[in-house]
Amino acid sequence: MYRYHALLQKHALGNFKTFVYEMGLTPAMLIFLNNIQNTRFQPNENYARELLELFTLGVDNGYNQSDIVNVARAISGWNGIDQTNLCGEVAFIQPYWDSGQKTIFSKTGAWGYADVINLLFDERPVQISEYISRKLYSNFVNPEVSEDMIKLLGKVFRDNNFELAPLMKAMLSCEHFFDDASVGTIIPGHIEYLLTFVNEIGYSEQLELYTAIGYSAAEYNQQMFSPTDVAGWPGNRLWVNSGSFQYRAESILNIMSYYYAKNGNKLEELRTLAKELINPGENSPTIICNAIIDHFLPNGLQKTVDYEDALVVFKAEIPENYFQSGQWNLDWEYAPAQVLYLINYLANLPEFQLK
Q1: Domain extents for the chain?
Q2: I need a labelling partner for 84 at 20 to 30 A (CA). Which of 72, 153, 160, 284 fits?
Q3: Which is nearest to 171 in space by CA: 126, 147, 141, 148?
Q4: pLDDT along the chain (355 residues), means of 10
Q5: What Rg do the C-alpha atoms of the chain give, in angstroms?
Q6: How far apart are the two ends of the chain, measured CA to CA in Å?
Q7: Model confidence over 228-283: pLDDT tens digits?
Q8: CB 35 within 8 Å of CB 29
Q9: 83, 91 contact by CB (below 8 A)
Q10: Residue 51: CB partners within 8 Å, gap ≥ 6?
Q11: Do 269 and 200 meet the contact criterion of CB atoms below 8 Å apart?
């Protein structure tokens, strides 16, 4: 799994074609999708099907069952894995490879593994570029996909020889990304939800939280490296229902409790966070409270009364005259606790689920 994860990081902004080629030869993928068992004697179509359906083209998008059968034949023979060293290289075993003629995308030859990858990107460039652009757009911009935008992004992807960095740059600098309609539209998975919070709150000792986040996600049916099926977790709105909403809110509170139980002195980080969100010298509790709200909630709160309710929480039990006289500011002894109370309150709001 280390090698698999390292490959994800290596190619996150690299060449997608190279990524597809190398991913199919990782021990994790060979074992997970059974290509380790795919030989000319006993063909296994599992990885061939997912290579087309999930990883490059999309469901029923430019291929048929005959293509799957022949892709499986072409990518056979990669069966040499040292079970005592799964991070090692995978060996190609020539006698296990189907060396016969195969027709893939109407092209016939004695195709092998590398040929399949070349055929995919040579014969189905539009389908691949638009399928991947759609996937990325729905995850980084808006689940409601603009097909016109997908065609433009697909062209950018093809024009840059399937390099992911130019595609991501075009996507994250387009008007759609900055449009108000795209702000706060994505409901992240539980792991992303908690990691995003940890980054937003600015915890300095994050490493010790990762185990707690992993346990929390596993209880939420998102165990790392163990998705519900080969397509991964469904995502977006399916992450939240009446039961899971409360669990996600409690998870935030548990993460904070765990962190401050181990790092009581780190409560001061909340004072630093609040100061970073406002102009120097600002001591209006309303402005400070609103700045914290807008930091954690991309669309803020819906009504003025919602901000007023949050302000009551932020002010805690400090007498009102302290605020009116200007005695109170973020250097006040209990200011970090006030920020903590407010974050606890926000974590229980539906708006906190959106990113």
Answers
A1: 2-123, 126-182, 184-355
A2: 72
A3: 141
A4: 88 97 94 94 97 97 97 96 72 96 98 99 98 94 91 98 98 84 80 89 82 85 82 76 82 90 87 96 96 94 95 94 92 95 94 84
A5: 25
A6: 28
A7: 788 887 777 777 777 778 888 899 999 999 888 888 788 999 999 999 999 999 99
A8: yes
A9: no
A10: 20, 24, 71, 75, 116, 120
A11: no
* Two structure tokens written together for 352: 């906190």
Across the strands, what pairs with 80? 91
Strands 107-109 and 102-104: antiparallel
Cα dist from 242 to 62, 220, 251, 305, 343, whole Å: 40, 13, 15, 24, 21
**Is residue 233 helix, strand or coil?**
coil
Task: Please give the pLDDT value at position 83.
Answer: 67
User: For residue 102, which phi and psi values (nearest 5 degrees)?
Assistant: -135, 140
Residue with token string 């209990």? 334
Question: What are 335's two structure tokens?
Answer: 């200011």
Q: Is the separation of the CB atoms in 136 and 171 below 8 Å?
A: yes
Structure tokens at 354: 């959106």
